[in-house]
Amino acid sequence: MLRSIIDKGIQQSHTVRNHMRYFTSDTHFGHPLVTALRGFLNNGRLRAEYRDVWQAQGRAAAHAWIKQYVRDNQTSFKAICDIARHENTIIGNINELVGRDDELWILGDLSYRCTVEHTLDCLRRINCRHLHLIIGNHDRNFRLRSNDALYENVFETIDDYREIDMELPVLDGSGKITAATAHQSIAMSHFPRLSALAEEHGNWPENWNKFADVALTTEGWLLYGHTHQDVPDGTDPLSVNVGLDAWGFKPVSEQQILEWFVA
């Protein structure tokens, strides 16, 4: 009897899930423009037409097409988008992957064009107990850190910039990525490096110079969002875009990030 209890305990210990860290960016809760551009439209016919343009001509053409549709029909993105489905998809994907005791780092742009309460309601629907915020330009505490108090009951930490240690590839003498790995420091910022902003790399809003003072000028490993790129490719070999648009509207784990760097 005692032996069976011990064996059962050993089996259970082997199935205990290690705590994981996940990363995402640009949830844009409540934001009609981003919701529509991501294809969350409340009319089935329009949604199908938009998808067809995207598949046939690419994302940029689809964005231009839906913007022209709004102008031609004298409507608005708010009138044609499906905010609830957009938010339900993002929150559902997070809750499916991220455990209650895991960490989830959101690299900015939580919401836009909605109330603080709506933002908080969305965040409270995330089942993870360990939420962390890196502030983005659409967040209410961007350049106004007194507004951190709005979010302090849902986030364990709130920063403009943060570094953590994680398993990352070792670089050789010439700075190239090798197959070896070691615990190293990686930076998190809503913005890509300043050099990438200056080159207008990605698909972010115009007037990049508005954010030149907060973009990183240092080298080294970097996680960022902001650009709404639809691929994880970083703006340089040591960075990766963790934004929702690049990862199928799902958060990305630290293991996936390591695998991406060494692939």
From TrEMBL:
Highest taxon above the source species: Bacteria
MF GO annotations: hydrolase activity
Matching SUPFAM superfamilies: Metallo-dependent phosphatases
InterPro entries xref list: Calcineurin-like_PHP (IPR004843), Metallo-depent_PP-like (IPR029052)
Pfam families: Metallophos (PF00149)
Annotated ranges, domain Calcineurin-like phosphoesterase: 95-229
The name this protein goes by in its record: Calcineurin-like phosphoesterase domain-containing protein
Organism: Bifidobacterium angulatum DSM 20098 = JCM 7096
